[in-house]
Design a protein that fits this description.
Number of strands: 2
Radius of gyration: 25 Å
Strand order of the largest sheet: 1-2
Order of helices and strands: HHHHHHEEH
Largest sheet: 2 strands, antiparallel
Strand content: under 5%
Distance between the termini: 80 Å
């Protein structure tokens, strides 16, 4: 057994799904892999190859992360000849001849990439060797989605060990899933409303709401930390950070002094 690798089974046998607590966790999803929260309500992992499904999810997630950035950028920067009434071309928005040819060329490139890499070997590259060592206690397949692509050397940025690499893969999977939901929302929104996703959005036009929400989030997270309690009495638990309680007391004192000064000024007048 590789004591430095990922140990199989993050969850207790027979445990409920973390994603859907009222459902049983599928047997194949025991927490050994990044992004595994026991979510498989339709039972796909019972009848299909888990590695292939992970590979498919990562491909779609990576494409979605590119699309969720490219979609609004195209609506902000692309010439009108590439857009459909100011909206990005899509299956629901439609295409004009120029955008159709451009999209077809891009997707042909993706298909060619898929064809050339579908049966790639990962055991003879640097990341592949690390992955096989990391996952030796779980299976012999290494890690899905490994193209040995890390030009900036970020893969070991939080630690050169199996757990750190798994945590980074967890981040990628989570962002990919969010992007897939996001790009789906873009498509549906534009189809239903007939307006571009960047229209009247606080994310794409100068406004005070976005910096206010950002400042509020930063202020909240410096005072409170959010956790999931072990018991099922509540979904989330809010506790003070190490300095949170002191900051709240200082804030109360500052507000109290300000109110006192204002009231004194009012009495003098």
């Amino acid at each position: 057994m590789n004591t430095g690798g990922i140990q199989p089974g993050r969850y207790a046998p027979g445990a409920q799904s973390i994603a859907i607590p009222f459902m049983k966790r599928p047997a194949a999803l025991n927490g050994s892999h990044a992004g595994d929260f026991g979510f498989d309500p339709l039972g796909f992992t019972e009848d299909n190859d888990l590695y292939a499904m992970q590979e498919a999810e990562l491909r779609h997630g990576r494409l979605a992360m590119l699309a969720v950035i490219g979609w609004p950028l195209s609506e902000l920067l692309a010439p009108d000849s590439m857009l459909q009434n100011g909206m990005a071309p899509s299956v629901l928005n439609g295409f004009n001849p120029i955008s159709f040819v451009s999209t077809a060329v891009i997707f042909a490139g993706f298909v060619f990439f898929k064809f050339k890499t579908a049966l790639r070997r990962t055991s003879n590259n640097s990341n592949g060797i690390k992955h096989r060592e990391d996952m030796a206690n779980v299976w012999k397949c290494g890690v899905a989605g490994d193209y040995n692509f890390d030009p900036l050397g970020l893969y070991d940025s939080i630690g050169d060990d199996a757990v750190a690499r798994k945590n980074l893969r967890e981040v990628e999977v989570s962002h990919g899933r969010s992007a897939m939901l996001g790009i789906t929302a873009f498509v549906i929104w534009e189809k239903l409303t007939g307006h571009a996703i960047v229209e009247n959005s606080m994310f794409f036009h100068p406004n005070l709401l976005l910096p206010f929400l950002t400042a509020a989030y930063i202020a909240f997270t410096t005072i409170y930390e959010v956790s999931i309690p072990a018991e099922n009495s509540k979904l989330l638990q809010f506790d003070y950070t190490s300095e949170g309680e002191m900051k709240v007391e200082n804030l109360k004192k500052s507000v109290g002094k300000t109110i006192t000064k204002i009231s004194n000024i009012g009495k003098k007048n």
